[in-house]
Amino acid sequence: MKVIRLREGKERSLLRRHPWVFQGSIAKGGGDAGETVRVEAADGRFLAWAAFSPTSMIRVRAWSFDEAERIDAGFFARRIEEALAFRKRLAVPSDAVRLIHGEADGLPGLIVDRYGDTLSAQFLSAGTERWKDVIADALLAATGLTRLYERSDSGVRGLEGLEPRAGWLRGEGATELTIREHGWQLGLDVAEGHKTGYYLDQRDNRKLFADVVKHFGVKSALNCYSYTGGFSVAALAGGAERVVSVDSSAPALARASEHVLRNGLDPSRHEALDADVNGTLRRLLKEEQQFDAIVLDPPKFAPTAAHAERASRAYKDINRLAFKLLAPGGVLLTFSCSGGIGAELFHKIVAGAGLDAGVDAYLVRRLEAAPDHPTTVNFPEGEYLKGLMLIKR
């Protein structure tokens, strides 16, 4: 077993059971990509069993803090069983569930979603890549399924020195699937959809939006960065008379319109705009249009803290425009999925947007990812999705 020895004082994060060790914290030692290594403090004390990544700034990702544990097929089977047992307790109101959420489930770099009878997985670290076949077999054994599609085509694999991979890892067949969520039917393609195929993290926020539309008697709703129209379906299901979906992807908008029809909703109440969101917000403002409810769910503007300053300006601009377009008493659901933008900073950005727009708003609720995308107390970086529900005064 190869040993990684940390610099003096650099053991504190592992003692707090935070799973990452950065390159600068290592005094000596190394290993092959994904190899299991023993991590020790400067004085030789055991800290963790971990996967080594020779190219990433996150040089070590901890598998276990138990010196007696062995990292083998049995370890991965146990971790997967624990994660599935937790999801079962949550009683998720959908046949689409996040089963493995990386570090939160003790499996750094592994994301697994279940879409009905199909699993879709991302192997994003050197450690999960090395154990891929073992993990795949354990996933199918634990779920009783036979189909596993790999979506390891995220750019973060490049930071691990890994090539993008996508395709059937186990089984075969159609990649077009239908899932059920809060009584709605939604289509997706595990081969072509974003992330593993869909944004399951917004499941509960979509239901919240439907309830808000119904409770507040929302007549008009604007869904920005709408993707395949999950929030648009929610708005129409809640009783909105006019819903506008804006996205720069024509295929995503086509699926959004299909979702409206599939759920028995009135297509005459839905307008799909294939356009730039920022430009559309400015045009709607010039036309003096107003909306009773607006959703802002943009892509990741700041993947790391290094991008935070530029991203902050982008978030502030779209929120400023949204505040201006929102009718008095209207509801704004605004989100950031950027890891480089923390919850406190996002709140400040939105507050600044309100000031620039000359409006004030009540903060009704803080929003986050659905509970099958957990954040643990020892790994706050897992809280990537931040949201605010605001009512314009």
Count all strands and give the number.
20
CATH architecture of the largest domain: 3-Layer(aba) Sandwich
CATH homologous superfamily identity of the largest domain: Vaccinia Virus protein VP39
CATH C-level class of the largest domain is Alpha Beta
Mean pLDDT over the residues: 96
Q: What Rg, in angstroms, do the CA atoms define? A: 22 Å
Q: Which fold name corresponds to the CATH topology of the largest domain?
A: Rossmann fold
| Adjacency order of strands in the biggest sheet | 16-15-14-17-18-20-19
Q: Low-confidence stretches at least 5 residues in length (pLDDT < 50)?
A: none
User: Helicity range of the residues?
Assistant: 25-40%
Give the termini separation.
Answer: 62 Å
Described by strand count, sense and barrel closure, the largest sheet is: 7 strands, mixed
Distinct helical segment count: 11
Number of domains: 3
Strand percentage, roughly?
25-35%
The shape, in one word, is: globular
Q: Helix/strand/pairing class, anyone?
A: alpha/beta
Give a written overview of the molecule.
It is a single chain. This protein is of the alpha/beta class. The chain folds into 3 domains: 2-64, Archaeosine Trna-guanine Transglycosylase, Chain: A, domain 4 (Roll), CATH 2.30.130.10; 73-177, Transcription Regulator spoIIAA, CATH 3.30.750.80; 199-392, Vaccinia Virus protein VP39 (Rossmann fold), CATH 3.40.50. The protein contains 11 helices and 20 strands. Strand 5 and strand 6 (58-64) form a beta hairpin. Helix 6 packs parallel to helix 7. The mean pLDDT is 96.
